[in-house]
Design a protein that fits this description.
alpha/beta, 5-stranded mixed beta sheet, elongated
Length: 130
């Protein structure tokens, strides 16, 4: 009997019908629930600051407490549910322009500056600690 060279030996497939099992397709409810969960997680993130807003906070010496940030976050979520996209947030020390869907502070100024400023392109106002 001759030895089989295992480098050049290729077995032939057996004839017949081979049925392959198909993977069950992912349902749209699973994809939808993932999207909803992902969206909810994004909404639960703390308030973000744009680079411009960070610079404004630093140069204008604006400081907010953790409690104020939590209130701002909660009120931004409420405003978003009411259909507000861009909002003016007034605290006892600062005025912030925020984008509620992105959960982001766009710019900030102290109240002395805000008194002589006209705010445009906003569709809601949030008052905190007034």
């Amino acid at each position: 009997m001759a030895k089989i060279d295992h480098y050049s030996y290729y077995p032939f497939p057996l004839p017949g019908n081979l049925e392959t099992q198909q993977k069950p397709k992912e349902t749209t409810t699973t994809a939808h629930s993932f999207q909803k969960t992902f969206s909810d997680q994004l909404n639960d993130q703390p308030v973000k600051l744009t680079k411009h807003a960070r610079e404004r906070f630093a140069t204008r010496n604006i400081h907010l407490t953790a409690s104020e940030w939590n209130q701002i976050h909660d009120k931004m979520r409420e405003a978003e549910k009411m259909g507000v996209n861009d909002s003016l947030v007034l605290t006892k020390d600062a005025a912030l322009v925020v984008n509620t869907p992105k959960n982001t502070v766009i710019t900030a100024m102290n109240l002395q500056e805000a008194k002589s400023h006209i705010f445009t392109n906003i569709n809601g106002t949030i008052l905190i600690n007034h």
